[in-house]
Amino acid sequence: MTTQSEAQSSAFSAEEMEFVAEDELVDIVPNMRMEPLNMICGDFGPFLPQIAARVPIWLAVALKKRGKCTIRPPEWMSVEKLTQVLEAERDSEKEFQSLPFHYIEISRLLFHHARDDIPDIYMVRSLIEDIRDVRFHKVETSLETFDGRTSAVQIKSLSAMEVNIVRPFVMKALQAFQKLGGLVPESDPLPDSRPPEVDKAAKGRRTLRGR
Amino acid sequence: MGSYYDIDDILSEEEPVTVIFRKPANGVGIDPSAEKNCVEQGSKVELPLWIAHELCQRDAVSVNVPACFDEKTRLEIQADPANVDLRSRSPYFYELGCKMAPITGDRTLCYFLFFAFRSRYKEVLTKAHTAAHVATPKVLSRLTNEEIDLYEAAQSSVAAFKKWRVGGSRFQPSSALGRKRRSTD
């Protein structure tokens, strides 16, 4: 389990990402009475039967396992919302729809621990899978457009897991580009069909290196 | 240059390159065709890169561009970058090229390396992400060590993600246990 993070010390393993995602907040409806919990990360509760409370996922899962609450799936995890997102994802070539940063992990946690609390779970699950596939495909195609002028990659509203998956590759690819591109004398344009743009990028790189 | 103990760095410097001696050198047995223990001016010798580099710095030799960067390879790369077997040319194709460029003073070599990598990395990425299982040695046989490194980075992170996604519970006792306890409450 930890082998991946050991092998590539810069990347988190999927399990570590899941652990981080457990700090996200969800709404629960307790069926018991309990004093507020004072945690370092904040105070949660008080818990009253049928009164919704907002707690971290790890706490929600712990209570759920003891049968003390039902978890309210987050707003974005409804069939309508997800269908909208999926359509929008398919429509736009480049842009990513805004979803929670940890949507992959959160959905997996909830599917696993609170499957009876999610309406239309099969639909929701397959929608999220679809969204993830579409987005990941987009990430892949955007990674294929490195042209050596790239010294950094900016993609808006990419989720944690998606970043984590491509991180090792992107780092190594950019390093290689940096190395090979650094050899090319900067006075000369890079071998490219668009010399002027390349020249601009070469200047950008110079300032970066000077840092 | 990599770090001192970088094994790839060391191995890439083992690659033989052809050098031409500018000065005669006495008392060295590095030219196998010479009758005596000395190298005459203008003789062509194959030496590992690390020693060629040193000699070149002392102006004792001039280094030829190795055969793996010849015109034929360049044309092949231009025609169909993804399918050129660079591994058979040199397992450390890029590393070697990077080190050769300053020694030989061949400016086009830099362009060529850059172009080759830029057109080949996409293929590496696609192959790595679509590889269903770990075993895809067929693709790997064409890639240089640098590209294999890249391939494995991409492939292992996707594989780890897939494993996590299908993996069942790891930290909790099985749900069957929990249910039993709840029913006895």
Summed up, what is this model?
The complex is a heterodimer of chains A (about 210) and B (about 180). Chain A is mainly α. Chain A is about 50% helix and about 10% strand.
Question: What can you tell me about this protein's structure?
Answer:
The complex is a heterodimer of chains A (211) and B (185). Chain A has a domain at 4-22 and 73-184: Methane Monooxygenase Hydroxylase, Chain G, domain 1 (Up-down Bundle). In chain A, helix 3 (57-65) runs parallel beside helix 5 (103-113). In chain A, the strands form 2 sheets. Chain A has a 3-stranded antiparallel beta sheet. A two-stranded antiparallel ribbon of chain A has the order 2-3. In chain A, a hairpin with a 2-residue loop joins strand 2 and strand 3. Chain A has helices spanning 3-7, 14-21, 57-65, 79-91, 103-113, 121-143, 160-183, 195-210; strands spanning 25-30, 37-39, 42-44, 53-56, 69-72. Chain A has 211 residues and is mainly α. With 185 residues, chain B is mostly helical. Chain B has 2 domains: 1-64, Up-down Bundle (Methane Monooxygenase Hydroxylase, Chain G, domain 1), CATH 1.20.58.2050; 66-165, Methane Monooxygenase Hydroxylase, Chain G, domain 1. In chain B, 54% of the residues lie in helices and 10% in strands. Chain B contains 9 helices and 5 strands. Chain B has helices spanning 7-12, 49-57, 71-79, 86-89, 93-104, 107-130, 137-140, 145-166, 175-184; strands spanning 16-21, 25-26, 38-39, 44-48, 61-63. A 3-stranded antiparallel beta sheet of chain B has the order 4-1-5. Chain B has a two-stranded antiparallel sheet with strand order 2-3. In chain B, helix 5 packs antiparallel against helix 6 and helix 6 runs parallel beside helix 8. The longest helix of chain B has 24 residues, at 107-130. Chain B is elongated, with a radius of gyration of 25 Å.
